[in-house]
């Protein structure tokens, strides 16, 4: 065999190291993000994923010592099996999610099995490469390229693969990459007993995954129908979240990452009670209003309907949501085309970053964020965030935030309250019943003394809100009354643990 041919084979194998390292880290990220999406609590899910995956890689490395015959063909078989199992992992786990016990078992199985196969790769490749040079050079090259491939995968997944392809198609394409490596090695390398029949299994696996890739949208639709009972009229993965709009007769709903955001049958209750107490309690006419979150435009609709605001600034992280609110006919009808109103300025920006840069105080600030079901969203309910809010309020200004359910997530609700009280002089908790949500709560805060009895009656046009309805909402029954909690801070985000604990209790029934 010529030196040039040896050099060519060596380069093929080293490039394979790069691809396989990229694939391995991507499997880990895909499975971790899927568990977070389905179960919440990203710290816990990623910790479990990384722990099982890495330990299983160690198991694979240990097992590799017993593979002593026909190493290259063994390695090729590992790649085919890894590509198949990795490629279908998201599909299988997504379908089994509705059967919770089966999901947990299969999630761990895929982590262990895929991690073990990934752990087999580097030891086997290193042994294959030994015939091309000294062990110290081979190890240096393999490990250097392995780390570079890991970096490439860790960047490619969040920046390209996940935003544009989603989890399911990403897992299939990464599986195809593993199988493609196996086929390239069969075609380009010389090894004892090589024959065309070696290509049959990789080719069959490649065809199977290509079929799944071409039908991934149909498969995703089937999966979504298992999660949503109503007809899906819009579904898209933005860079921030999974957005689904459904319709059942006159009931139009939005889901973000699987969580219900509103139902058109009763959202007016929620949004009137979120917006109007602060607007009608402001000492002076609330000319400048800031809405954080609420990219659907429903809170902005209520601000405009009140006739009290001269200008409204809406800050929402997801431009896809904002675009839907501006252009989707059903959304425009529901929000009154509020985001196209000349009095409204729309900013596609992170609320935290906006407040850091803001130097123009507002009369009223309204926070309509998703529930604090993970550490990322929990930062929008921290003491540090509320200090930024306080800085952006005019003297006598009011801040209101949705605060999840005082019944279903009692500790979480009162954690938000005690965190606000650590920053604001007056904090008023209140709640109401929203049929699709249940008992739902809010907290109204001010740097100055605030008396809720001084709130004014709204102008005509409210379907639920009145001064008496607001004053009645200040009363909490024994099972929703205040409990002792910690303060939610950036360094110690306890809120999402309270939230998950509370909702888990009710989900078990």
Gist of the model:
This protein has 509 residues and is α/β, with parallel strands linked by helices.
Explain this structure:
It is a single chain. The chain has 17 helices and 11 strands. It is elongated and about 90 Å long. The chain has 509 residues and is an alpha/beta fold. The model has no long low-confidence stretch (mean pLDDT 90). The longest helix has 54 residues, at 135-188. The protein folds into 3 domains: 3-215, Growth Hormone, Chain: A, CATH 1.20.1250; 226-261, Spermidine Synthase, Chain: A, domain 2; 266-507, Vaccinia Virus protein VP39 (Rossmann fold, 3-Layer(aba) Sandwich), CATH 3.40.50. The protein is 56% helix and 15% strand. It has helices at residues 3-39, 42-63, 71-96, 100-129, 135-188, 200-214, 216-227, 267-281, 298-306, 319-327, 329-335, 351-357, 375-378, 383-391, 410-421, 467-472, 495-507; strands at residues 231-237, 242-248, 251-256, 259-263, 288-293, 311-316, 344-348, 362-368, 393-402, 426-434, 438-446. It has a 7-stranded mixed beta sheet, with helices on both faces. It has a 4-stranded antiparallel beta sheet with strand order 1-2-3-4.
């Amino acid at each position: 065999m010529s030196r040039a041919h040896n050099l060519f084979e060596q380069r093929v194998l080293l490039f394979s190291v790069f691809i396989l390292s990229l694939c391995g880290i991507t499997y880990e990220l895909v499975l971790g993000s899927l568990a977070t999406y389905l179960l919440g609590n990203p710290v816990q899910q990623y910790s479990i994923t990384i722990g099982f995956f890495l330990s299983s890689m160690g198991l694979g490395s240990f097992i590799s010592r017993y593979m002593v015959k026909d190493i290259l063909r063994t390695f090729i078989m590992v790649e085919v099996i890894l590509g198949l199992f990795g490629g279908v992992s998201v599909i299988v786990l997504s379908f089994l999610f509705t059967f919770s016990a089966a999901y947990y078992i299969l999630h761990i199985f895929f982590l262990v099995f895929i991690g073990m196969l990934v752990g087999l790769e580097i030891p086997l490749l290193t042994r294959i490469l030994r015939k091309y040079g000294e062990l110290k050079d081979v190890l240096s090259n393999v490990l250097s390229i392995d780390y570079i491939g890991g970096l490439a995968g860790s960047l490619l997944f969040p920046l390209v693969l996940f935003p544009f392809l989603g989890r399911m198609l990403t897992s299939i394409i990464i599986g195809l990459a593993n199988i493609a490596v196996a086929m390239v090695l069969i075609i380009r390398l010389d090894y004892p007993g090589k024959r065309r029949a070696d290509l049959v299994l990789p080719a069959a696996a490649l065809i199977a995954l290509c079929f799944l890739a071409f039908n991934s949208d149909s498969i995703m639709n089937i999966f979504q129908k298992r999660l949503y009972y109503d007809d899906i009229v819009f579904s898209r993965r933005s860079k921030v979240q999974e957005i689904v709009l459904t319709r059942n007769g006159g009931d139009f709903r939005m889901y973000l990452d699987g969580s219900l955001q509103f139902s058109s049958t009763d959202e007016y209750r929620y949004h009137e009670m979120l917006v109007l107490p602060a607007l009608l309690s402001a000492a002076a006419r609330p000319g400048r209003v800031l809405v954080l979150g609420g990219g659907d435009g429903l809170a902005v609709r209520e601000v405009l309907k009140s006739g009290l605001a001269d200008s409204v600034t809406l800050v929402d992280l997801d431009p896809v949501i904002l675009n839907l609110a501006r252009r989707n006919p059903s959304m425009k009808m529901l929000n009154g085309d509020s985001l196209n109103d000349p009095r409204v300025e729309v900013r596609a920006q992170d609320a935290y970053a906006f407040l850091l840069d803001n130097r123009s105080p507002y009369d009223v600030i309204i926070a309509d964020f998703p529930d604090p079901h993970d550490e990322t969203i929990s930062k929008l309910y921290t003491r540090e965030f509320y200090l930024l809010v306080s800085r952006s309020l005019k003297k006598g200004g009011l801040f209101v935030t949705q605060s999840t359910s005082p019944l279903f997530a009692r500790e979480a609700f009162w954690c938000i309250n005690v965190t606000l009280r650590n920053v604001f002089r007056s904090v008023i908790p209140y709640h109401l019943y929203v049929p699709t949500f249940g008992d739902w709560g809010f907290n109204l805060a001010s740097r100055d003394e605030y008396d809720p009895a001084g709130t004014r009656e709204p102008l005509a046009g409210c379907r639920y809100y009145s001064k008496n309805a607001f004053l009645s909402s200040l009363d909490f029954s024994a099972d929703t009354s205040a409990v002792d909690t910690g303060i939610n801070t950036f360094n110690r985000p306890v809120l999402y643990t309270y939230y998950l604990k509370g909702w888990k209790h009710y989900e078990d029934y």
